[in-house]
Structure formats: structure tokens, C-alpha cells
Amino acid sequence: MNLKIVVLAKQVPDTRNVGKDAMTPEGTVNRAALPAIFNPDDLNALEQALRLKEANPGSTVGVLTMGPPRAAEIVQQGLFRGADTGWLLTDRLFAGSDTLATSYALATAIQKIGGVDLVIGGRQAIDGDTAQVGPQVAQKLGYNQVTYAEEILGISDGKATVRRHIDGGVELVEAPLPLLVTVNGSAAPCRPQHAKLVMKYKKSPVPAQWSVADIGGDSAQCGLSGSPTKVKSIENIAFQAKESKTLTASDADVESLVKELLADKIIG
Amino acid sequence: MDNVFVYCETEGALVAEVSQELLTKGRKLADELGVELHAIAAGSGLKGKVEQQILPYGVDKLFVFDDPVLFPYTSAPHTDILVGLFREEKPQICLMGATVIGRDLGPRVSSSLTSGLTADCTQLEIGSYTEARTGKEYKNLLYQIRPAFGGNIVATIVNPDHRPQMATVRSGVMQKAVYAGSARGEVVYPETGKYVSPEACAVKVLDHHVEAARHNLKGASIVVAGGFGCGSKEGFDSLFELAGLLHGEVGASRAAVDAGWCEPDRQIGQTGVTVHPKVYIACGISGQIQHIAGMQDSKIIISINSDPDAPINQIADYVITGTVEEVVPKLIKYYKKNSK
Ligand SMILES: Cc1cc2nc3c(=O)[nH]c(=O)nc-3n(C[C@H](O)[C@H](O)[C@H](O)COP(=O)(O)OP(=O)(O)OC[C@H]3O[C@@H](n4cnc5c(N)ncnc54)[C@H](O)[C@@H]3O)c2cc1C
Ligand SMILES: Nc1ncnc2c1ncn2[C@@H]1O[C@H](COP(=O)(O)O)[C@@H](O)[C@H]1O
Q1: Does position B155 have pLDDT exceeding 60, yes or no?
Q2: CA distances from A79 to A40, A53, A66, A181 (A)
Q3: B263: buried, middle or exposed (CB in 10 Å: 19+, 13-18, 0-12)?
Q4: Using one digit for the tens of pLDDT, what is the confidence trace for A154-176?
Q5: A164, A169, A178, B105: which could join B210 in a potential S-S bond, CB 3.0 to 4.6 Å?
Q6: How far apart are CA B204 and CA A145, in angstroms?
Q7: Among A residues 109-148, those touching chain B with beta carbons less than 8 Å apart
Q8: pLDDT value at position A213?
């Protein structure tokens, strides 16, 4: 079966390695101090898409991303790893989108792309950690959804079989296309960039760059105005320092601590 | 209209603990707002089994949807129930667990109702909000407080204009307590078919396998937690003896989990479980924000760390400057000697 697959991928600040200069004294994030990377789970999503493409000759994989112009890098990195095409949604009207407004933009773009059988996203993005965009895109498109996937085992008779992690266990589900799947970071890692593909696409522009108007979007549903959630305030985290008793590792110190805790019935 | 709703997750006929925790929180919010607390349970074989797991937390009205198509959970039927019911009931707040189910269902419902959803809240409060642009004032909004940017900041999110205000909360973050006041405790059994169309049942669960929890870290009153400073799997394993003696459980930092020294379900912190023990013994844990987020409410914190300036020492009641290899065996030895 020829599948038309779209991978949702986001460029994110690398919040895993936040240095001291990453926060401004006002407690806001200094995005410039954080390297921008391909959201980790989205690489796992891309790998699942590329495997399906190999297993189903004639299929295509496209990478869809929304972000500032620089996010074109994400589409390019997708091409370097084996995607066939890509789309960048970029427009000042998209700025300030929460998950709902993001899902509106992505779903509208997927409708414009048209005929998409399978949308594969990461489970969550490391800047927001919400895991909301995938299911919201699925709802807007009226697609079935399977979240927390470890592996898309295969597709036959218009149905995908997916192994997923649930709380305390695993599940095997069968879901008819069209379908949206979100993939865990623990799924198979993405293949590396391919030197030939890097050569081929290094200099070429992103296949398509779309604004709100290009996708026929309603600007009221995009960006800040399309976002029901508002950030009221942001604070730096400060923990209350405690008065602590300092001990050494000597036998006498450790024994007296144990005795104190026993006497106070804290342990026992 | 305007009530507080909690979606109660079930596995078989067992109500998830996180849902009970949210009922307790939801009751407080409802009392503060002067409205009712309503609960929804959807699954198969629930009638007569779930009511007593839900009502004691102060529920005024419980909606039980009992139908074979509702278990195992799939997205669309549960979404249809919540969306249909919320269109009728128009709640102002809806809470659910930040579990695999809650994080699958919440966004699908919020998208259907175009209402805002905030994931993984660590605190929920009622407060007012003034929109900077228009100066418009809103009273009695739900403050959805959550870590952001990898836990380096906390953000307070509000949904001024859209209802319900939806939030998910991880297991263990709130604490459950049977409600001391009196609640109406009405139970209704709406017909599932009125809300769920046959087309919504397209996704089939071929195999569903859940294992009973291997430990009770969340509820433990003593937690011995190991970090990267344990140095090795053997070093980490020594914590089990201490925890066993103290009738506690072993927890871990993410670095210890990533090193493969224990199972991921023992991770404590922002992306793991939240614990509230009487005693927390941190063994070779530096105390990064994301770890502290899951244990800061421990009554007594003991830090064993070779670095006297480890950040965790700032919030510790007792700091033992030394190595895990040296101190843990001594704790074991002197506990055995003095506990009888
Ligand atoms: C989005 C995000 C979410 C995260 N979520 C979590 C989470 O839920 N939980 C979590 O724990 N982390 C989480 N982390 C990771 C967190 O930032 C830290 O990396 C992690 O907690 C560090 O673990 P550690 O303290 O064991 O290791 P380290 O930071 O390496 O600290 C080791 C400590 O051991 C001490 N030590 C070394 N040798 C010895 C010895 N022989 N005896 C005694 N002490 C010794 C050192 O002085 C040091 O203080 C998250 C990070 C991100 C970005
Ligand atoms: N701006 C975006 N562009 C493309 N995909 C996105 C974007 N935001 C979120 N996604 C997708 O949705 C997933 C979940 O994101 P989040 O809900 O932000 O945690 C990500 O892993 C991506 O696959």
C-alpha cells in the first residue's frame, strides 16, 4: 500500500542542558543561550515513518514543522535522514501559539497537503512537555489516534498495528487509517544523516514555506488570539533553604544520628 | 452548570489513585467556589464496584458509564462521553490524571471543546487575573501552576474565556483524603449509546497487559533514594538492605535510572513520581531542580554526599559529608545495633 506519511517535528531549545546563563535575572528564559535542536521524540517518530516507507514501497515521508524561519533546519535535517519532502509553517501570526493554536495550524496544513494516511509525531516536545499537540491534531482532522507508541509493527488492509506503552504495562492495538500516532523517546533511535542526502539537500531551500494565508487558515485561530491558555506569570524556582545539622562519616556521628532518629521515633 | 468535574480513570473496576487524589483537590476547589464536585467513571463492569471508591472523597454527583466498549480504554469513545456530557453540564473546571490515559484523552477533549488544557500541574489554586492588554478583570479563575522549560521555571497558566478550564496532574502530587464534610453522593448511570457512536469504536485493543505495581514508592513513609553518586549497580543495590530494614522503599534520581541501576518506575522527580515521606535519605544525589520537585515535601531530609556543597544539602535537615560506600553500611550497622 502506498502511504502518504507526514511527520510532525519541532525545533526546540535544548532544555536538557540548561546552563547558568540560560535564565535571565528576571527569571525568563534566555532562548539565545540554548542550542536549538530537533525535538528528541520527533526523531523517533521520523524513524518509524522511514521504516514504514521501506516496508511499503511507493510511500512518501514529509516533515512538517511550525516555527520561526530558522526552523527550516528541521525540514532539512529530515531530508538528510531520508524524508522525501517537507513544509515549514512560518508567519508572525503563528507566534505565541499554545498547543491548541499549534494543532489548528498543523491540522490545517495537513488538510492542504491532502490525502495524508498517517501522521506521526513525537510523544512530547521538551520545551513544553505537554504531549498535547498530537491528539489535538488528530481530533481536528477526525483521525484515529494511538499515543505512546513504541513501534508501528505494520500496515495491512488499511489498518496499522501498533505496540504502545501504558501505565504499568503494554498494549497491542489495531487502528484503521487515517491515523495519527505519537511515538515515545524509548522507541528505536533515528538513523543518522546520510552523506549523499546531505550533499543533495545542503544547498536547496525548504520545499515549501507557508504562511497563514497560504494554508487558508483563520488568523483568529492562530497564535496568541487562537490560544485559550494565557501565561499569568513566570517565576524562578527558589527552594526554602533549611537549617541543617552537618555530620561527618565517622562511626560516632553516624551512630549518634541513628540514635537521635530512633529516640524521636522518626525511624524504628 | 459551573461545577468541578474529575474524570476517574479505571483499570478493570479499580479506580486509579491519582483520580482519588484529584477528587480531594477538586472538592477543595468546589468548596472555595461554592459549587458541586462531580465525577465521571467510564469502563466495563463498573456498576456496584466503583461507587464506594469515589463517593467518599466528597462527590455530589457521580456519572457511571458502564459498557463493554469502554474497556480497555480507547480515545474516541471516552472523548465522546466527556464532550457530550460537558456540552450538557457546562463545567467550569475539569481535572484528570497526567497518566497515559489522561494525556491521551485530555487534549482530544480540549480540542473538541476549544478549551485550554494545562499539562502536569503541580499546584491548582483559585485566583483573579487582569488581562494586561485590555485591563479586563477576571475573578475565580483556576491557576494552573506547572514547571516549564525542563523544570527551570514555574509558570502560572489561566484560561480566562474558555470553559472548562482543564488541567492534568501527575500521580502523587496531590494527596487524597476522605471528605469530612457531607456531599450529596448522587449516582447516575447514563446510557453509553446516547453519547458514543459505533464509528467511535474503530480502534481495537488486541492485547492489554498490565502488571501489578512492584513497589509502593509513592506511599512509602521512608524513602532511601540513590543517585549517580552510588557509583555502580552494586553501590545502588546496597540501598535495598537499608530500605528493607527501615520498612521503606528505594527510589532513584534520573541519572541512576539512566545508568541502568534500577527500573524507571523508581525515578523520583518532575518526570517521575512525587513522594511525601517522613524521611528521605538521598544517597549520592546532587539535588537538581527536577529531582527536588518530586521530594521537597519530605518531612526530614538526610543527604549523604561526598561534596559538602551539593545543592541538595541546602534543603536537608541532616547532611552527612561522606561517600555512599562508607556511610550506608554504617547506617545499617548502627540501626541494627540500636533498634532493639
Ligand atoms: C526535563 C527534565 C526532567 C528531569 N526529570 C528528572 C526527574 O524526574 N528526576 C530526576 O532525578 N532527575 C530529573 N532530571 C535530571 C536532573 O536534571 C539531574 O540530571 C539528575 O537528577 C541528576 O542525578 P544525580 O543527582 O543522581 O546525579 P549527579 O548530578 O551526577 O550527582 C551525583 C552526586 O553524587 C555525589 N557523589 C559522587 N560520588 C559520591 C560518593 N561516592 N558518595 C556520595 N556522593 C557522591 C556528587 O557530589 C553529586 O552531588 C530531569 C532533567 C530534565 C532536563
Ligand atoms: N511547532 C510544531 N511544529 C511541528 N510539530 C510540532 C510542533 N509543536 C508540537 N509538535 C508535535 O507535537 C508533539 C507534542 O508536542 P507538545 O504537545 O508540545 O509536547 C511534538 O513531539 C511534535 O511531534
Answers
A1: yes
A2: 16, 14, 16, 21
A3: exposed
A4: 999 999 999 999 998 999 999 99
A5: A169
A6: 11
A7: 126-136, 138-140, 144-148
A8: 97
> Which of B218, B273, B286 best tests ligand 1's pocket when mutated (most atoms within 8 Å of CB)?
B286
At B271-288, the pLDDT tens digits run 899 999 999 999 999 999
Q: Is the CB of A121 under 6 A from ligand 2?
A: yes
**Per-residue pLDDT, A35:** 87
**Cα–Cα dist A57/A267, whole Å:** 64
**Model pTM greater than 0.95?**
no
What SS3 class is residue B161? Answer: coil
- On the question of pLDDT at B307 being above 90, the answer is yes
Please, which residues bridge with residue A171 across strands? A164, B208
Q: How far apart are CA B285 and CA B310, in angstroms?
A: 8
Q: What Å distances lie between residue A246 and B148, B278, B303, B316, B322, CA to CA?
A: 33, 20, 10, 10, 11
Interchain pair B204, A146: CB under 8 A? no
Distance CA A36, CA A62 (A): 21
- Residues in chain A, pLDDT under 50: none
Asked whether A8 lines ligand 2 (CB < 6 A), one says yes
Residue holding cell 487515517?
A: A178
B116 contacts in chain A (CB < 8 Å):
98, 100, 227-229
Q: Which of A78, A57, A81, A80 is nearest to A3 (CA)?
A: A57
User: Pairing relation of β-strands B137-148 and B153-158?
Assistant: antiparallel
